[in-house]
Amino acid sequence: MAISRLKEQIKKIPDRPGIYIFKNLKNKPLYIGKALNLKNRLKFYLKITDGRLKRMLLEAEGVDIIVTESEIEALILESQYIKKYHPDFNVMLRDDKQYGFVGFSNDKFHKIFITHQPAKNKETDFIGPFTDIRALKITLRLLRKIFPYCTCKQLHNNYCLNYHIGKCPGFCCLKQSIINSLQLTTYRKNIKAVKDILSGEKSSLTKNLEKEMRNFSNKQEYEKSLELQHKIEKFKKIFLNARIINNDREVMIYHNSSNVLKSLQKFLNLPSLPRRIEAYDIANIQGQFAVGAMIVFTDRKPDKNKYRKFKIKNTKQNNRDYNLYSYYDRDINTKSKLDEKNDDTAMLKEVITRRLKHPEWPYPNLIIVDGGKAQLSTALKTITNYRLLITIIALTKNEKHTTHKVTLENKEIVLSKLPTELRNFLIGINSEAHRFAISYYRNVHRKKSLQLNF
């Protein structure tokens, strides 16, 4: 494979986690690898001058990639593809670095463990190979918090440390506990869940858990239903389904990104796909060092070069030096003035107004603001003043400060009623806007504090 051609392909590859597949003229996989950052990882191959990887590059005709949402997901997908295609150079390189396998013992109280040399017997099932033992251990550690399982090699009298911290059901301590059939069934479900995840069956597992949660709810067993709901939420935080994200004649980048945009278009009844989405958030503490942030998503991906920061100008708190004593020495009569100063809607209006004074920035198909009806109303009025027709929604948080519902012009919709992918997409945008705003606020606060100390 010509280095010049590989360079051209790398230009089109995103800075995202995923797997890459070098193929020969017959479209047969030669080598499969994973990366936290696909672009950076493939740049590594430009520097190879000798060895087996150099031979692989000479045989390769092109490289395909599949983008995932996390390194953990890439690890699992890589294992599936290596097992499916048995690429020649993965087999050759296996001698240089021992791959890992996850073992599931078939005794009464199944145990899970990692090994480099899977034994061929009926007493243990193995999933693998996994090329990155570090990432595999992290994956199992995260899963164990959600689906506890035993790792002790032998039964013993005392409860192990993992039992005390909630990572082990205590079945390895049989002599001190009586295990009933319900506990055993629950434990076996945990083992099956881990096995399904490592086998790439996350979607079916999620559906089964959600079905079980609904069944508990229908039976009015709300405590069990809530427990399962929390488990599902934790599970979704670390695992999202692999996404196929673009398709090009030279670089195969598979994607279903348009699916979530089509879903969003249908949900909001938009005239076209929302290819450019802008989200706004305000960060301040009682008016101090108030800032605003605008983030941009283009074709479902964060477009960080187009993010913008705004230091709020029309807040009295921002126009005077911060005085610790005066801050705490306020009387009740100042409350109305303080409310006025700390009016988030006024700050939001300022940020959107300043943004609209830049017509050289393409107008979005959709604007998302953080807040409720007041913030939505402010944004709508501001846009109307500029005679623009842009759909606006607000993402509203609950008392736990978790994004809970979508506020539209004429109604509110609880996020849990939306399709999973669309719900996660909207929550992700809201979280990114909040992260960017808070990051800017902290920088402003730190600089101002340093100035006041001198």
UniProtKB/TrEMBL annotation:
InterPro entries per the UniProt record, alphabetical: GIY-YIG_endonuc, GIY-YIG_endonuc_sf, GIY-YIG_UvrC_Cho, UVR_dom_sf, UvrABC_protein_C, UvrC_RNase_H_dom, UvrC_RNase_H_dom_sf
One example GO MF annotation: excinuclease ABC activity
GO biological process: nucleotide-excision repair
A cellular component annotation (GO) from this entry: excinuclease repair complex
Residue intervals of the GIY-YIG domain: 15-91
Keyword entries, A-Z: Cytoplasm, DNA damage, DNA excision, DNA repair, Excision nuclease
Domain spans labelled UvrC family homology region profile: 241-383
Protein name, entry field: Excinuclease ABC subunit C
Natural source organism: Candidatus Yanofskybacteria bacterium RIFCSPHIGHO2_01_FULL_39_8b
